[in-house]
Structure formats: C-alpha cells, structure tokens
Design a protein that fits this description.
Layout lengths: L1 E4 L14 H14 L3 E2 L5 H26 L3 H5 L5 H15 L3 E6 L2 E5 L2 E12 L3 E14 L2 E5 L2 H4 L7 E7 L6 E2 L9 H4 L12 H5 L1 H5 L6 E7 L5 E4 L11 E2 L4 H11 L6 E6 L6 E7 L5 H4 L9 H10 L13 E4 L2 E4 L12 H6 L3 H6 L8 H7 L24 H7 L10 H13 L24 H17 L12 E10 L6 E10 L5 E6 L5 H17 L1
Parallel strand pairs: 2-4, 9-12
Antiparallel strand pairs: 1-3, 3-5, 4-5, 5-6, 6-7, 8-10, 10-11, 13-14, 13-19, 15-16, 17-18, 18-19
Helix pairs in contact: 1-2, 9-18, 11-14, 11-17
Length: 550
C-alpha cells in the first residue's frame, strides 16, 4: 500500500493538511483487507493467530507511516514506544531535508515471536536540491499489555543511522575546485574562501569571485548524508556527491612555497602575512595569512615604513646620489616643529655613506635629504614599481598609493614610508621583484582570468636597478637585515618599522621585503603591530627561506 503527501500536506507546524482524508482511508482499507503477512510453516490455529497479530500490529504501523508521510512528526511519534525520541529525530530529519513530498510503501508483515511483528517499508522523498531519494527500512511492532506500538530506534528512520545521528543534506558536491599550480586542490583558506553550507554558493575569496565558473552557473546540487546531531558534521555519504558541473579555477600558487610561508607564520602571535612572487612573470607563488579570513596578504592597506626606502632610494639615485656619497645620520631631524628620529634614537658615525644609511635604515638622513626631491618625485618613482596602478590579478588586491606631496612635513614623512603612503604586502613583494627583475611585471594569481596586465608608465634605469640590488645585499651582509646573513641563496632585503595610530610612543608594524639572488623568488613579510622589521619580521623571513631550503 502506498502513502503519499502532496505539496500542501501536513507539516510539523500544524498547517492544514489536504491529504489527511486520503491517508486515513488508505490505513482503513489496509485494516479491512488484513494486509499481507508471512506465515511459513504455520498451519491451522497458529496461522490464524499469526495473521491476527500481523493485522493488529499493522494498525499502529500504518498510522505511524501515514503521519510520517504527512510530515507530522509529533503525531507519528505517538504510535511508538518512545514518543519523545521519535518526535525529536523525525523533526530533525524533516527539518533538514525539507521534503516537498514523501511516499512510504510497506511490505508483508512477519511474526517473529509472541507479541512481535516486523514490517519492511520503502521511503521515497522529493528533496529540493537533491531530487528523489529513496531507501529501504523496517520496523518492529511489539505488543505490551495488550497495546501494539512501533519499537522506535534510529535505524527505523534509515538503516544507516545510529544513536545521536540524523539525516541531512550536504551542498556543493557538484562544485569544481580551486587548484594550485600543480592542479591539486589549493590549500590556502584565506585565498580559496568559503562556500555557504546551505545554499552551496561561494561567499568569500576565490569561491565567491568565481562562483559561476566553479558551479557551472547552476544551482549547486545536494547529497544525502548521515550527520552528527550535536555538531552537524557529515559522517557518511548516502547518495554520493552529484557530478561536477563547473570548471576548476587554476591559480599560480606553488604548494611547496605556500606551505613554507604558512609554516613560517605558524608561531606568530599577531596578525601576519607573507607573500612570494616570481620576478620573471609576476606569478604569485604564496599568499599566507595568520589568522585566516581577511586576505591581508593581497588586500591589506598599511604604511610600509622603511621598506618604502627602496622607492625613495630609487628617486635619490635618479637625482644623482651615489652609494658612496657622504650621508650624515643624526639622532633627530626636525621639520616645521615635527621631530623625526631613528629607531631607538641611533646615529651613525661621521663619514657614513648613502649605502650605510640605507643598510642601517636611517630615517633622519632621508628626511633631511627631502629637499632634493620635487613634490611629485616619490609619486613618479613609485610608478616605475607599478604602485598606484589598477592591477588585473584575477582576485581582489590593494595596489598601493603614493600621492604627490602637499607640504614639507608630508614629503618628509613620505620619504620613510609614512604619512599618506599605503601598500599591501603584495605591493611590497612586487617592489622587491622589480629590483630583482629590473622592470615591473604585474603580479598574477589566476592567469586565465587576466584580461590585460597593468604596465608601469615609467621604468627603472638600468644603473638605478643595479645600485638598488647592491644596497639591498649590503642591508643583509652588514645592515638591519642581518637575520638573513648566513642563509644560502644570496638574499637581498630591506627592513621596515612602520608607525601607526595615535598612541605615545606609537605602535608599529614590522616589515621585511627581499629576493633571492640565485633563484626566482621575491617576498614580503608583515607583522601587524609586530614590533621591529629587523628583530621581529627578520626571523620570520629567515624561517621561510630555511623552509624552502629544506
């Protein structure tokens, strides 16, 4: 006998049930007909007794199944021996699956002992997003004190269920994956983003940006699963994931470099990011964030502090300064009443050169030398590094800003990467890559999605690029980037300690950027509110490079 519920059938919320009369008639007809039963080996009075028991047991079973098919969990539970447990599980299942209709077809009853009859039945549900799902189950009906009840356990609802479990839907099984450069699923949560577990749609990161591609433009399919009722986590697939209808999105992320970056940030006690790029083609090899969530590696906006001195040095070198030129570095510099100082108020001895003040990251020299630069000089120098352009990377990025200076104080602060100068870790990794490569190559994460790369309107002079390389190497061998001094690969670097906020003394972000002289790798490390570039960002950069070296 088949029991069905139409779209307007009974619900757990007590709305009118148009199919109620039909279901009642169906149960009555079964009782009048007596239903089927198996009585192998029984004769005479025994067969008649078995038939009578099956007929009696079928009545509560039919009512139970009819109420379940009518999506009335509480009514169905009333025909069981544990109504509270039955109502709880049935309500959970009906809520999770939200079937538009349910059909339950039972089979012959079989007496298995005094006061015990077993019935098989088949459940078929029309589940939005999953289509028609069907399974075979069974129930034992027992007689106690002259009353027949369905003996309720979790497997009555589905044979794969155990105590503490329920049926649920899992979305996104038909969704294609975001891949790394080797074609494997990308292991970088802050890049990949998230998918809504109910709708199956991408809600952040690459999952959101490429939702139509990954889903194939179709509504994500759903699969039937066994789930833990306490945690909601799927523990077993029942129908299998629907086939993928979308296309995968392939990125440039090198899984080995990504893992080295993530491991380098593992011990960080502050928000942190590490970006690595290939200077030859701009491919983003790693973009690690700690913690995950906001992709500060590519989208964060921060004052770069002294790592910006690479750009300022390019402007000075274009103006004619040479690495060996004298360069005084006092403790303090004052501009219209505003005092600038070196970290920990250090000063360099008489006879120091431009190479020395760059390597030791002397703020006061750069501030005092601002007069050599026009109000647009830093803005123009930044253009050769692509800063401030509109980058087509294949994902959301912040591409930096270096406005023309509006006052002497503004220019003084800008020479050391403060005031209105802003950059992301990706921008600063690209600055190091530009020095290594000699020209700016816009970074890329999803090559197939890039329509037109941004091209810098100006270029570094060959001589300027060569001298910047010398300065960054000296910063490692005898300057503030000494944390990298003993590492292989001829690292070149620049440190930065960027002030932010209004506290006195000011809080600081820690930066280090650099590239490997003997390989195609440029990188940037940022520790938010993380202290000093040399003392705090330096060890993270060193750990990253050691991880890569094995």
């Amino acid at each position: 006998m088949r029991r069905t519920d139409d779209l307007n059938g009974p619900t757990p919320h007590g709305r009118p049930r148009r199919g109620r009369t039909v279901l009642g008639i169906a149960v009555t007809l079964l009782l009048l007909a007596g239903g089927g039963y198996a009585a192998s080996g029984l004769v005479g009075g025994d067969a008649e007794e078995a038939e009578a028991d099956v007929r009696s047991a079928r009545e509560p079973l039919a009512a139970f199944l009819a109420a379940w098919a009518g999506h009335d969990a509480r009514k169905a539970a009333g025909y069981t021996d544990t109504p509270d447990d039955a109502a709880s599980l049935l309500t959970s299942v009906l809520t999770n699956l939200a079937p538009s209709s349910t059909t339950i077809e039972d089979g012959e009853g079989r007496k298995e002992g005094d006061g015990k009859v077993v019935f098989p039945f088949t459940v078929t549900m029309a589940v939005p997003g999953a289509g028609e799902v069907s399974w075979r189950s069974g129930a034992q009906v027992t007689e106690t004190a002259g009353s027949w009840k369905v003996a309720f356990t979790s497997p009555v609802i589905h044979p794969e269920l155990e105590a503490g479990q329920t049926l649920a839907l899992k979305s996104g099984g038909g969704r294609a994956a975001v891949l790394d450069a080797e074609g494997d699923p990308l292991r970088a949560d802050s890049l990949v983003g998230t998918v809504d577990p109910v709708s199956g749609e991408g809600t952040s990161g690459l999952e959101a940006r490429y939702d139509d591609v990954l889903s194939g433009g179709a509504k994500p399919g759903k699969s039937l699963v066994v789930a833990d009722r306490r945690t909601g986590q799927a523990v077993k697939d029942l129908t299998g994931a629907p086939p993928a209808t979308g296309r995968p999105v392939r990125t440039t992320i090198d899984p080995r470099v990504q893992k080295a970056a993530a491991d380098a940030l593992a011990g960080a006690e502050v928000n942190a990011a590490l970006v690595a790029v290939d200077p030859r083609n701009g491919h983003i090899l790693a973009a690690a964030n700690r913690p995950g969530g906001f992709n500060r590696a590519l989208e964060g906006r921060y004052p770069p502090g002294s790592v910006f001195k690479v750009v300022t040095a390019a402007a000075f070198l274009e103006d004619g300064i040479r690495p060996a030129d004298p360069a005084p570095c006092p403790k303090f510099a004052t501009v219209d009443g505003q005092r600038f100082e070196n970290q920990n108020q250090f000063e360099l001895p008489a006879g120091s050169t431009f190479a020395d003040v760059f390597a030791q990251s002397c703020n006061t020299y750069f501030v005092d030398a601002r007069g050599r630069l026009s109000d647009t000089a830093l803005h123009d120098a930044a253009q050769a590094f692509g800063i401030g352009g509109s980058w087509d990377v294949g994902t959301s990025t912040y591409d930096g800003s270096v406005p023309a200076n509006t006052s002497d104080n503004d220019k003084a602060a800008a020479t050391i990467g403060q005031a209105r100068v802003q950059a992301s870790p990706l921008v600063m990794a690209s600055v190091a890559a530009t020095v290594k490569n000699g020209t700016f190559t816009q970074p890329v994460l999803v090559p197939d999605a890039v329509k037109k790369r941004y091209e810098a309107p100006t270029a570094l002079g060959t001589e300027v690029a060569g001298r910047l390389r010398e300065l960054m190497r000296t910063t490692v061998t005898s300057g503030s980037a000494h944390a990298l001094k003993d590492l292989p690969g001829s690292p070149h670097a620049k440190t930065g300690t960027a002030e932010f906020g209004t506290e006195v003394p000011p809080r600081t972000h820690a930066w280090m950027i650099g590239y490997q002289g003997d390989s195609d790798l440029a990188w940037a490390v940022l520790l938010e509110d993380g202290g000093s570039g040399g003392a705090d960002a330096g060890p993270v950069a060193a750990k990253f490079l050691r991880n890569l070296a094995g």
